[in-house]
Amino acid sequence: MAAVIDSTVADKNADSRSPARGRSWSWKQPDITYHPDRRNWEERTARRLAENPSLPHSMLPEGFPTKLTSPLVWEGKDWKGEEQWVFNLTPAHLEEIDAAVKHFHGLGAHFGHISPKSFPLPTLGPALRDLSRELHSGRGFFVLRTIPVDSYSKEDNVLIYAGVSSHVGETRGLQDKNGGVLSHIKDLSHLYPKGAIGGPAYTTEKQVFHTDQGTDIVSLFALQIAAEGGVSRISSSWRVYNDLAENRPDLIQVLAQPWIVDEFGRDPPFTERPLLYYIDSKIVIQYARRYFTGFQGLPRSANIAPITEAQAEALDALHFLAEKYSLGLNFQKGDIQYINNLSIFHARDGFRDSHTKTRHLLRLYQRNEELAWKLPEPLKLLWARTYDVVPENQTFAIEPVIRDAVRGKN
Predict the structure, then answer these.
(1) Is 230 in a helix, a strand, or coil?
(2) Where's the TauD/TfdA-like domain (predicted)?
(3) Please, are residues 212 and 288 in contact by the beta-carbon 8 Å criterion?
């Protein structure tokens, strides 16, 4: 398959050789880094529009809508207060959770068998199932407040997180080798040498807007928050789509064509797929910037095709439009945040830890088989890999560790 070139104006630094077959290209990686630079974006946009003023008048890909209308289309300014998305646990709910912890321990079961049946929540469970519907066909996110984390051991906090979350999406997905279904999001940069970390989750740096790869639902459980910063931000990718469809349909074309996704030295060294899809009357986006720019210990691989100028502009447009329409969440200790990973971008501000406050989140990948969206064909293999783990083989890391997928080369 040919390199992704804007069909309305071929990037002059593009090569006709297939990136899937060739190992030399007459163009080089654009001036783009993991952390977006607004000035670079604006200059690149101005340059490309000067070269071809017809870009904003391009046609959308066949079948793609000119505008999406849905509760999933929102802007941060639309929300008047967190009571619109926060579900507060009552004393009765907390008693149910405590009883469920005791019930599960009484079963003597492996953590992989945590489920609505083994972690029963008589009144909270139905409420969580309703909130899961909100994820899939409503606004696409909610926050559960708040689990009393200091009242439980590390293991029981993991049990509570997985048990409560099973009522939102029972199927858990892989995040690491050896059956790892639980990840820790925490600054580990002081524990590892430079170059050992290839993802921002293990640093104090800002995370740019993205989706996680290969999952319907991403949930985060705050064991502790930072001393300063670390605000969790989300944004409607459907609102971003509407903006691009109206003002830069050529970038919709670029996003809907196959991209060379870096696998950072694994086998195969790259995969090819679009970042944007329209299926079953829904826009689906799967995109993380670091696969195209690299990050610290995992730079963009030199033996695969660089991205094009059009793709670089599209990446920046996604970030800065997501930022424009974003909502900052008051993520507190003991909160669990749930988002629809197919329609919501998420990000976080940089942060500072202290001796008494060290930002520490747990993460699960989840799927609700009853409510799950239909997947486009190019994403099915990703999902199959994520959810290819039986309960007996699921492992839950109690202490933080860098996931194999983002372990730096050095």
Answers:
(1) coil
(2) 110-365
(3) yes
Q: Hey, which residues does 336 pair with through a beta bridge?
A: 144, 221
Written as six digits, the tokens of 283 are 């826009």
**204 SS3 class:** coil
Specify which residues 229 forms β-bridges with. 351
The single-letter code of the amino acid at 211 is T
Rounded Cα distance between 289 and 28, Å, is: 18
Is the pLDDT at 23 greater than 50, yes or no? yes
All structural domains of the chain with their residue ranges: 40-56+83-410
Distance of CA 169 to the CA centre of its chain: 16
**Closest to 361 measured CA to CA, from 195, 235, 230:** 230
Query: What is residue 27's predicted lDDT score, i.e. its pLDDT?
Result: 80
CB 146 within 8 A of CB 330: no
CATH of domain 40-56+83-410: 3.60.130.10
174 has a pLDDT exceeding 60: yes
- Relative to beta strand 171-172, strand 360-367 is antiparallel
Q: How far apart are CA 105 and CA 153, in angstroms?
A: 13
Quote the CA–CA distance of 26 and 278 in Å, as a whole number. Answer: 32
Tell me the HSE value of 316 on the side-chain side, using a 13 A CA sphere.
21
Q: For tokens 């609102």, name the residue.
A: 239
Residues written for the chain: 410
Q: Token digits for 255?
A: 């996003």
Does residue 409 carry a pLDDT above 80? no
Contacts of 7 (CB under 8 A, 6+ apart): 58, 253
106 DSSP 8-state letter: H
**What would the mean pLDDT of 354-374 be, rounded to a whole number?**
97
Neighbour tally for 144: CB within 10 Å: 24
CA nearest to 344, candidates 161, 219, 224: 219
CA distance 354 to 263: 35
Q: Are 273 and 259 in contact (CB under 8 A)?
A: yes
pLDDT for 78-105, tens place per residue?
A: 999 999 999 999 999 999 999 999 999 9
Tokens at residue 117, please?
A: 């049946």
Is the preceding omega at residue 204 within 30 degrees of 0, hence cis? no
- What is the average pLDDT across 142-158? 98
For the whole prediction, is pTM greater than 0.85? Answer: yes
